Amino acid sequence: MDHRLESGATLLHQTLKRFVRGVLIAAFALAFSSHAAEAQLLQRSLVLTDARIVTMAGPTLEKGSILVKGGRISEIGAKVDAPFLARHLKLAGKTVTPGFIDAWSSLGHTGSVGQSGPTGDVWDSFNRYARDDFRQALQQGVTTIYLAPGGPPGVGGRGVVVQLRPQSGGAAGAVLVEDAALSINIGSGQSPIKRLKTFKKVRADFRKALDYRQSLEDYEEDLKEYIEKLEERSKKKDEAGSDGDDQKNGDKKNGEKPAKDKPSPKPDEDKPDEGDGDALNSGSLWASFQPVKSGKNGDGGGKDKDDGNGKDSGDDKKSDDKDDEDEIKKPEKPSPDRTSEVLLRAIDRELTVRIEAHRTSDMLNALDLAEEFNLDIILEGATEAYLMADRLAEAEVPVILGRVTRSGVFVNDEYRRHSASNPAALTKAGVRWTVASGAADSQAARFVGLNAQVAAGRAGVDWMKTVTIDAARILGISRRAGRLARGMAADFVVWSGDPSDPGSIVEQVYIGGKLAYQAKGQ
Amino acid sequence: MFGRTRFGGNGNDISGLWSSERSVERLIPKRLIPTENSVDCSTSITPRRTGRRWLVRSTAAGAIGCHRYGVAKRRAVLATVLLTCGVTVSSAVGAPPAKVALTGGRIIPVVGDEIATGTVLIEYGKITAVGTNVEIPYDAMEVDVSGKVVFPGMIDPHSARALDVPNENLPVTPFLDVYDAIDPSRLYLEDALRDGITAIHVIVANNCVIGGLSRVVHPIGLTPDEMTIAAPTALKISVTPKRGFDRMTQIAKLRETFLELDDYLDKLAEEKYEESLEEKDEKIDVGPEEAIKRGHELIEPTDYDDQHRNLVKLTRGDMSSFIYCRSAGDVGHAVRIAKDNGFFDRSVFVLGHASYKAVGEVKASGRPVVLDAQLVHRERDPLTGKLSETFVPKVFADAGVMFALQPNPNASLAERYLNYQASRCVRNGVSRQTALESITINPAKMLDLGDRLGSIEVGKVANVLVLTGDPLDFNTWVDEVYINGIRAYRRDDDVRLKQLLGDEPPEVAEEGDEAKGSEQEDVERPGKNDKAESPGKSHSPGDAADDKSDEKPAENAPGGDEEGGSVAP
Amino acid sequence: MMRGHIEKLKRPKIETSTYRNDCAYGLRLFDFSIFRRLVVVALLIGVGIGEVAAADTTVLVADRYVAPDGTIKSDILIVVANGRISRIVPEEPEGVDAKPGVVDHYPGAVVCPGLIDVRSAVGAYGSNQEEAFAIDPGASAIELVDRNHPVFRAAAVAGITSVLLMPGDGNLISGAAAVVKTVVVDGKGARRDSRTSSSRTSRSRSSGRRGVPGVVRDDGPLVFSLGQSPLRFDRAPTSRGGAVAMLRESLRKAKDGVGHQRLVDFVGGRLDGLVVCDEAMDVDAAVNLFGGMNLSLTLVFTGAASDVSAGLSDVFRATATGPYDYTMSPNALSHAAALAKSGNLVALVARAPGGAPDGLRVTAALAARYGLDASLARSAMTFSAARAVGVADRIGSIEQGKDADFVIFSDDPLRLDARVLAVYVDGVRVYSRELEETP
Amino acid sequence: MIALRNGGSARRSICMAAIGLSIVSTAAWAESSRVTVIRADRLYLGNGKIVSPGVLVIRDGRIAEIGVDTKTPDGATIIEIADTTVTPGLIDANAAVEASDLLAPDRRMHPRTWHDFFTPGHHHTATPDCCGSTCPRSMQHVSGTRCMACGFPEANTENAFAVGTKPRVSLAEQSSEVIPDTLVLDTTNLRSPDFDRLLRGGVTTVFVSSDSAAVIGARGAIVRTGGPVDRRVVRAADAVKATMGTDPSWRGGGNRPPVRRFVSFRNRRPTTRMGVTWVFRKAFHDTLRHRDGVETYGADPVSDSAIAVLDKLLRGRIPLRIQARTQHDITTALRLTAEFGLSFTLEEATEAYRCIDLLEAAEVPVVFGPIYVRARGDRRFSSEVEQSRLHTFKTLLESDLMTALTANELREEDGLARQAMYAMRFGLTRAQVLPAVTSVPAKIIGVADSIGTLEWGKRADVVIWQGEPFDTTSRALVVLIEGEIVLDRRAG
User: Fold this and answer.
1) Number of domain units in chain A
2) In a shared domain, residues D221 and D115
3) Which of chain B's residues have a Cβ under 8 Å away from the Cβ of A330?
4) Among B374, B474, B534, beta carbon nearest to D158
């Protein structure tokens, strides 16, 4: 007994010891743990004091404080109540701003050469191990990007909004908004004629999507009818008992034959020569066109919806009439069209559509497209927007400008009429605009702030607003990024001085309340 | 043997052959243990192929003497062999003994402790005893290997070089099988044998979305059947974009493939249900949804079509996969896709050298990896402009990830040897044991052949090398290679090697030169006009045919997967 | 902003209304410094003794100005007469002896010397690349100038008042460059405010020897090129080795007095040079070729920080780098800083019109962000640039006796949101934002 | 194996001790002359002698003492690592050093001329991709396909980090076939990471030979691989290199103009071996005539500055090197040089095993290498490499010829050391191979009085190898040039 007691005591002792050690370790960990190792729960609250805070949500606080709790800003103001054990950061003389947003970026993009179409998700193309690139972007205060799919003209893939948050194992980047937008390029990389063709193709794609929806709806209806009929028949069957068996067999054969015969390439053997000859000689041209027309439009056939549908239903009825009433034709399910499914989401305004267009003609086309299919669009590029700023304002289309320093001399057709007065004209007309790196080069993303300075300088507006709250609003993430306010995620940048001043550097970047970047020697 | 059943109805044949022990026993007595040997030296059929490249391998084939079929052809070849180097073959032609004892050598078994002086006993193609005190049966052929090193046969974990063309143009080809493309006459195979590689995982190259089925082969044999150790082994998948694709397209394609598989299964289920009703002479009574639900249970393994059969197996976990990830960013996608579609637990990642950055992710996934043949990753620091070099295997070794090495066929010489690749690891700080494992037992485990290959242990298949020295010493030569307990290679009989080292009689040299020269024809040469002048050329129609077969891969080869048209002694 | 004749000065309220978008300047109006400046101007009016005719004199008053060393200093009053800076009165109003005809007052703004792009092809009519001979010292870039070229205007509006027009760098020796002003105040291409055209007669001191107006220097530095560009054409040389051998040979001959006069002058130290390099090894080659010859040379080299080696300043009087843009690596962007650190005089280039005209300021801002001292960055666009091409005696700084070329920025020119409010060339306002934007 | 492991840990501890010691001793450095003491298990002196264990004392960059147990002077830096071998710094007598770095730091260039503007993608500008290259099209790099812009994957493979591996990039001047007035040094990028790679392979001095694109090429240079850039050049203008065979007709730009350009200076001789021989003979013939005061005339005129060099060559004041691979080309070289009374050093010599007697009779020094089975890089485009043999070097070394081994453009991990490794595999001993990469090349390039062996008074270019040199598992740990540590891998 004694022995056991003693061992029990030792056990207790040991447990206690372990507990104490555990507590010590925990305290130690709390005190010294690096930002990466901190679990969300264990994360200490953080208090920033004495900083000049550019909130973007209201007036700039010349000497303000922020309390960060659980990755969010729980309090912001001239003074906050710091909880016990909170980590204090005294930032006298420093400026705190929201993280910059590159609203049209290719940072970390591994390039697009193929045409993935709307089924492509740009996140698949994001290199989470482009460490140096991310670090450089953070070094210039960029915390959030819209990753654009890029790619050849036409309907491209879907973009995502990415936060440059460090992840475990040297990776970085976390998706903030999945499926942020569908990207369409009708503006660049082509001759004017080809651009028109591309636009035609884009429009056809949307039409096709509508057709697909129609065929799906038709199918749903037919299916309902079909199931009703089945139920009817089973009722009948219950009533009739087993006397219809022979008939059924016969019906089956009758019913099957046409179905099998239709797709078979060889018709009846009765008229072999003429038919074949016809198909070969006169039909060869048609043969090459035919499948495109009917095959892609599902069961309906043809673009004239009314006609096709009418015909179809007529056929159904006829066959119903001809066959025995017991024979029920199963409606054929249209084969899934994943491209159209995505486009339908755009038509339903579940997905924003971003259209890259530079020339006025292309922008007008983009506006037409939006009107025709009731799309929620954002214009990218918009090099010549100053020529039609009023029209854009009227359509309430936001604009994301790309690179604003261009020479206009050695450039492609679409940039030839580049003008420095573009931002000013947009501002004047009341178009919502922001400026981004333009996705042309993944390296450019980090200088979105400088690009904004140039653009905003020309327009005479506050540059920081364009790359924070304006960009966030256009991206639809203004509830999560772009300003410093209570309840917002704690994404902010600590600058050594005024961010406009070329001499000031980024000292620290916090994303979600965690340190994402720290300048060397800080 | 397997050829006709690949797509056919009997699904059991495909997986059963290699996974069960039974099949091995079936293989060995029938194929590799000859009951009679009747090589007719006097037969003088005009050979179909008159390449010098046949010499070594044919010798081996003769030694193994598989006589189930194709006798005439093989006789023809053997006749050629005998004509060109009669002496060589006659020593090897005699019936190989069923029992071999390698005595007096230093044994490096890879698994288990090294034996300074010991004996390896091979009986009927299997290792039956390893140790210092091994009783040698009276009927065993005793081979004195004292002063030499006995080492397990090395394994090339990922190679497309035995294929005539490494990749299909179509992106999604799960229905293909490398069986149809393995070219037993590839010089690569001869080189592999000479370098001590006894098992090659032949798999389509990386330029695909979903490639075909792979198989593990010996470097010897006249047909893919003879060569096969295990098949089908794995399905090749690439997360890294195929030529002309970008990552978005590649992964969208992968995703769509598996979505389409679901659609197909639903459709199949519905059809099956309807069929079953038809059999019962009943009319359809439920809507499609219900029909699909009921139909799924009715599907039998034979019902899948060629397009989908292997994908179904993959997603059900009945087949392993080799997933290629060139850069670090690809690893995450590979893991996600594999997990989403249920084949993660049997996947192996084939990594490019830049992927070392994702070592954390790889480690977390717990899956083994096949490393790039290029072991050093170079990149430039954007800030300082300094070039930095990372020795990739060290990173994985430090993280404790199981890895296998590949030989680098593009290197000028040394990196073509798998054991040299391992010795580079040691030089850069990987432990010797890890390095040795990465060329033997690790690849065996990845191929689910860990119980049969990759080490010298009792019960394992007798793929054994006799080396002149330590495997990690560059001066070491492969003296003898035993495959399934039968001597497949002897350095003393290696005519091509002798020729390169200047030990050959002059006539043979000229002919050998020509064979080598023709190998290089695939390369466009500005100085081609001089070619006709080079002495000692004789063009026979047979040669021309040979050359053609080698021209193809060079065009289509990804990653320089061209024919290694040279002896890498 | 306030402009016009002195009477208008008495109505300070005009000033507030001109800055519609920027209330900060409105607040500044009640600053003490403004008040003081008004006093200064008032004193001027009262005390002024006219040496020069009133109509020919302009007085520029601003809150801040860019000093020759690149720092921004406060309070300046510049008296311009005859297209030159005749007096500068930074602090006290005493001693101002000019009776101004025009007083331009820019409260809150920064007066900067006109920016200089020392590697450009602005105004070149047609190709500037002669392909026939790799050694072509006889060519003159001044012959290329088309004074009516629209890109001149674009450059001027961006604040670039002078450019070095360079012959193409595709020859080992491409000929003489020229420094021209982007606006000619008395020639055909001049644009000026309505008031100036009526109120004064301008001198034509900018006219060059060849009768091309607006020329600062027409027989400019001799341009050498050691990069890969000279190797592209269907002629010798095709390799670096050949290039260096050819250059060495012609320099040797020139020392003996054989060859084109310009080259002989260059070797004799009577003409300065400009060496264009692509890579660090080209710079090494240049040092080997020209080192120890005691020449006046400027290096044009857009390299990376890691390429910079010590001792460059022994051979080259200045190094021009740029243009920088958003896509360059940090290593490349720190080049200017590294050069400055190792004791070189750094000039920045925009390479207009290939690069955007405001690229010069973007380049400077990027260089500043990557370690170049802000004052050096400002100087690199102005005074250092002028020194790099041997025209520092005429342009590049606000000093007495120099050409009255100014850019008025709404703020520090390194702040990219600062706007160009006005541009003066030879004392004439050739661009005014306010006038242009409010028709 | 176990022994090795223990050795490793022991080495590490000694390493630490050595580092500690060196820290202590640095204080006394500046006062007196700089002394470094290296203690190693073996000293291979390069002249056949071995001291084991040995001590090497370096004073002021020169070798001051070699002994078994020498007293350590006060304040000396001591380098003592367990299980090491000390050899002279290796010398590569025919190294190809890349002209410009393929992994060049990216810098965005604006289009310089209209020409550039219309050929976008001309500059290698993008950030290094996973493929490691900095090609503008690196995004489109696909494993297995050759990028037209940068030559990926060639640019990336381990053996292709050198000159000529980018096909069609000309290093030799292509406007003439006789260019002995140009210098290889001018095309050599002294900042090239190639030099770092050479250093890592234990090579301390290289002779950089001209590209083979001209019949009579540029003058080579002798360069050190480490130390400050401005102190690397040992001899700026050394031997002239001539080339026999087909290389002058297709290397560089090739002597046939590209399509659609009928009038081009590329339309010229040689395109055959006849042409090569003609150009060679004409050049020297012209020189001799020039000496007699007769002006040069006719086809393929030679410039005056070239003639000045050729004249010195004929007078034996400048050494000549000839690259010849096939037996035919070697005999041609022998014939031509006999005609003009020239002596020369043979480069490459792929088929030398076929004409040993001839070479022995002419007493031609040979710089042989690299050893390969299947040529990679640019060499594989040549028809002259088909009959290479692995025993050629052995045959040469066992003959009476003075033979050095070179790795030429191969920079795989350990370059020249690897070539030595090959030589050992193909039948030679370490004792035979070591002089072929140290003292013999020093003699051939004429620097034997200052480097090549470890002897008193010579320049202290020293390599400390882990274990034995030229083993697979060993590598150069510390390299000193003139007694200064330029490579230090003791830490790992």
Assistant:
1) 1
2) no
3) 284, 288
4) B374
Which of D414, D464, D471, D404 has its CA nearest to residue D439? D404
Res A257: pLDDT: 41
By CA distance, what is D172's nearest residue in C? Answer: C239
Q: Is residue C300 part of a domain?
A: yes
For residue B381, give the chain C residue with the closest CA.
C331
User: Cβ separation of D143 and B206 shorter than 8 Å?
Assistant: yes
- Average pLDDT taken over every residue of chain D: 78
- Is C396 within a domain? no
Q: Which of A266-280, B93-107, C245-259, D415-429 has the lowest mean pLDDT?
A: A266-280
Q: What is the mean pLDDT of residues B330-354?
A: 93
Q: Identify whether residues D77 and D125 lie together within a single domain.
A: no
Q: What does each C-alpha distance from B515 to B491, B508, D37 come to in angstroms?
A: 20, 11, 55
User: Which two three-digit tokens encode residue A373?
Assistant: 């299919």
Give the 3-state secondary structure of residue A493: strand
Q: pLDDT tier at B527 (50, 70, 90 boundaries)?
A: very low
Give chain A positions within 8 Å (CB) of D139: 110-113
Q: Quick check: is D166 in a domain?
A: no
pLDDT per residue over D373-393, tens digit each? 777 767 777 889 888 889 999
Q: Which residue has the higher pLDDT, A117 or A317?
A: A117
Lowest average pLDDT, out of A473-487, B403-417, C179-193, D190-204, goes to C179-193
Cβ of A121 within 8 Å of Cβ of B251? The answer is: yes
Residue A493 sits in a domain of what CATH number?
2.30.40.10
pLDDT at D101 over 70: no
Buried/exposed code over C179-203 (b: 16+ C-beta within 10 A; e: otherwise): bbbbbbbbbebbbbbeebeeebebe
Among chain C, residues having any CB pair with chain D shorter than 8 Å are: 127-129, 168-170, 229, 232, 234-245, 249, 278-281, 284-285, 302-304, 306-307, 309, 311, 323, 325, 327-329, 331-332, 351, 354-355
Contact D159 B114 (CB under 8 A): no
- Domain range for C63 is 6-113+404-437
Q: The dihedral of CA A64, A69, A75, A81: what is its sign?
A: negative
- Chains in contact with C, counting 3 or more C-beta pairs less than 8 Å apart as contact: A, B, D
Of D117, D187, D261, the CB nearest to C241: D187
Instruction: Please tell me if residue B385 touches chain C, with a CB cutoff of 8 Å.
Output: yes
Give pLDDT tens digits for A328-377: 788 888 999 999 999 999 999 999 999 999 999 999 999 999 999 999 99
Q: What residue spans define the domains of chain B?
A: 3-96+493-560, 256-311
* Domain containing residue A509: 32-99+482-522
Question: Is D165 contained in some domain?
Answer: no
Cβ–Cβ gap B384/C306 under 8 Å: yes
Containing structural domain, residue D132: 103-160
Nearest neighbour of A443 by CB, restricted to D127, D129, D139: D127
Per-residue pLDDT averaged across A279-286, rounded?
40
Contacts of D186 in chain C (CB under 8 A): 240-241, 243-245, 285
DSSP-derived letter for residue A68 is E
Interhelix angle A422-429/A448-459, rounded to 10 degrees, is 60
- The residue assigned the tokens 């950089």 is D208
Residue C49 sits in a domain whose CATH number is 2.30.40.10
Distance separating the N- and C-terminal Cα atoms of chain A: 61
Of D160, D388, D425, nearest in space to B195 by CA: D425
- Cβ-in-10-Å burial (0-12, 13-18, 19+) of A305 comes to middle
Residues 388 through 427 of chain A touching chain B, CB cutoff 8 Å:
none
**Chain B partners within 8 Å of C330 (Cβ):** 382-383
Is A365 within a domain?
Answer: no
A409 lies within 8 A of chain D by CB: no
Give the domain CATH number at D245: 3.20.20.140
